[in-house]
Amino acid sequence: MSGIKFLLFFSVFLVVGEVLHAQLRVVISSDFPPLDVVMSGGAADHTSDPDDVQSMVRFLLYTNEFDVEGLVVSSATFANIAKKQNMLDMINLYDKVDENLRKHDSRYPTADYLRSVTYQGRSGTWGGSVSNNMGAGKDSEASEAIINIVDKPDPRPVWFSVWGDCSNIAQAIWKVKNTRSAAELKIFLSKMRIYQIAHQDSTIDWLLSNFPDLFIIYSESTYMGIFGGPNDQLGNLNWINMNIRQNHGPLGAAYPTASMGVDGLKEGDTPSFLYLVSAAHGMNNPEDPTQESWGGQFVRSGKTNHWVDGPGPLSISKWKLKYQEEFAQRADWMLDQ
């Protein structure tokens, strides 16, 4: 091999190596409710499933592992209102503990940075149809931000952890499809990785039907493997109180005691980023959903780049001891030690 060819080969090798070992780019899209959310009987704009608040407490303790490029607030379950202030209220609690977190890892982002990448979607989209949720005149701060994030000149793909409806992502793709060439759309889609939790609106169907090459993990039941409950020694309210809620500062105290259908740990959306946490730990290659991970194990749907439930909830619950031990450890980092 000539000297020039060797240098070119070595340069490409270094670039590829840097991409593989760099932090993952992550966008969280959450149907995020107010912090004083209730499951029923409260004001209409405060009635929702509290499990997104549970999941966000955990996610904020893992922001050191990722390049967090967006916190998207979509329409909250039941209330169907998208309100960015709800997420900002949560970040204000993070602001009270982030200096302690940075004593353990300097990569924890500042609260001001997280505020700067918080975006609001449209209200009225949760559970909605394609015609209701996307199309002409339905851009939002969130959908525009998604386009800008994907367009960045960064070789790393963007991982979208979708906790609520998929409308903001679908709207971004719809706009690119209708304003750019087919070749440009292909490049745009190639940079996206979507992990969708459950069927929360019809735009996920539109994505699955129209974009067979778009990377989508669609967890219709696997995510339930994280659920706790009274008989779960690693996820009942006693465990949550001892390790997260009590004597762990204001962010830990914000963790709701129950969610729709589950007392203690529910966090139905958490597997969408636990999949990336275990990848950051070197356990799995996130580009291969057939591998075991903290966020589940999946199988390919036909000849598409879509991945659906495989072994099911057990592929998440089998790792509960490990990810709960780490959750408790990180909660301890919030304390002034």
Describe the structure.
It is a single chain. This protein has 337 residues and is α/β, with parallel strands linked by helices. The protein has one domain: Inosine-uridine Nucleoside N-ribohydrolase, Chain A, CATH 3.90.245.10. Helix content is 41%, strand content 13%. The chain has 15 helices and 10 strands. It has helices at residues 3-21, 51-60, 84-94, 98-102, 111-116, 130-133, 141-151, 167-179, 182-190, 203-210, 237-245, 249-253, 271-280, 314-317, 320-333; strands at 24-30, 66-73, 118-120, 158-162, 192-197, 215-219, 258-259, 262-263, 298-300, 306-309. The strands form 2 sheets. An 8-stranded mixed sheet has the order 3-2-1-4-5-6-10-9, with helices on both faces. A two-stranded antiparallel ribbon has the order 7-8. The longest helix is centred in the N-terminal third of the chain and has 19 residues, at 3-21. It is globular.
Brief digest:
An eight-stranded mixed sheet has the order 3-2-1-4-5-6-10-9, with helices on both faces. It has a two-stranded antiparallel sheet with strand order 7-8.
Main attributes?
337 residues, alpha/beta, Inosine-uridine Nucleoside N-ribohydrolase, Chain A, eight-stranded mixed β-sheet, two-stranded antiparallel sheet, 15 helices, 10 strands
